[in-house]
Design goal:
This protein is mostly helical. The chain has one domain. Helices cover about 50% and strands about 0% of the residues. α1 packs antiparallel against α2. The structure holds zinc ion.
C-alpha cells in the first residue's frame, strides 16, 4: 500500500539528518525506525521567520 511520508525541510539540519536516517533504516528494512524518523520530521517545528539561526527548543 502507498505510504505518504513527511518531507524534510530543505534548510533544517535536524530534518536532513532524520531523512538520511530514514533512508538508511529503510535500506535495513527497519520499519520501526523508519516510522520513528517520519514522526521526527512530522513533529519538528519550523517557525515562519527564516532569518538567522533557529533558537533551540
Ligand atoms: Zn526540521
Amino acid at each position: 500500500m502507498p505510504e505518504l511520508e513527511p518531507v524534510a525541510h530543505p534548510d533544517c539540519r535536524v530534518c536532513f539528518a532524520a531523512d538520511r536516517g530514514r533512508t538508511a533504516a529503510r535500506t535495513q528494512q527497519a520499519a520501526g525506525r523508519v516510522s520513528d524518523f517520519n514522526q521526527m520530521i512530522t513533529e519538528h517545528p519550523h517557525p515562519d521567520n527564516q532569518s538567522g539561526e533557529g533558537d533551540p527548543g
